[in-house]
Amino acid sequence: MLRQVRLGSRFIPFLTTDVRLTLNITRWRLPSQRSFTLVTQSTHPSTHPLSTTSPIAYSTAAMSNTSGFYSLKAELPNGQTFDFADLKGKTVLIVNVASKCGFTPHYQGLQALYEKYKDQGLVVLGFPCNQFGAQEPGTAEEIQTFCSLNYGVTFPLMNKSDVNGDTTNEVYKWLKNEKAGLLGLTRIKWNFEKFLIDKNGKVVNRWASTTKPSAIDAEIARIIE
């Protein structure tokens, strides 16, 4: 079968002999330094035959990003694994927390958001971290007791871990790669930064420590519907 590919204002003919096709993408650069994509077709055994006239449009980056969130795992204080695959279809708010920080009262606002929207699918996840001013020095049991007694926290808290540096936990490696902060910097600046992930596993917003939980209520309401 004779096919054509467009190159500028010209059409270049090429021959294909099989309707079961794969796409080979070749990048070229013209003398004018303008690049174009030449799409050629070659035979290849396939269990999913493609029509030569069928349009193909997909974004591998988008597929990877969303599926990546649900492949994450975190360690719970009891040593068990929290599997992010269980969060499919949920709206998720992730916060790095600390018990002796000036922003620690944000626990109250986070719990209020959780109680308000949990029946609509909101999950709040706290990640205790001792990297900022050593403001989370306690054991897992001490952290849990503190949060429960002082702020009535009932949303899940993970085991204490790092959110910056070589020992960053896998969740924060992914989050920071997906959504940079102020001036394009990816590192976490301080306790109680906040990431909001929608029902499709996409990071839709990131807020600094100074942003109170109540200030993000409207954003949660918008995407949780």
Description:
- The longest helix has 12 residues, at 106-117.
- Strand 1 and strand 2 (10-15) form a beta hairpin.
- The chain has five helices and ten strands.
- It is globular, with a radius of gyration of 24 Å.
- By secondary structure, the protein is α+β, with helices and mostly antiparallel strands.
- Mean pLDDT is 81; it is low at 14-64.
List key phrases describing it.
two-stranded antiparallel sheet, GPX_AS, peroxidase, 5 helices, alpha+beta, antioxidant, 225 residues, Glutathione_peroxidase, Glutathione peroxidase
Percent range for helical residues? 10-25%
- Order of strands in the sheet with the most strands? 8-7-9-10
Uncertain residue ranges: 14-64
Structural class: alpha+beta
| Rg value | 24 Å
Characterize the overall form: globular
The number of distinct helices, counting runs of at least 4 residues, comes to 5
Number of strands: 10
Mean pLDDT: 81
Largest β-sheet summary: 4 strands, mixed
SSE layout and pairing:
Elements (H helix, E strand, L loop, with lengths): L1 E6 L2 E6 L5 E9 L5 E9 L16 H11 L2 E3 L5 E3 L7 E7 L8 H12 L4 E7 L11 H12 L18 H9 L15 E4 L5 E5 L9 H8 L1
Parallel strand pairs: 7-8
Antiparallel strand pairs: 1-2, 3-4, 5-6, 7-9, 9-10
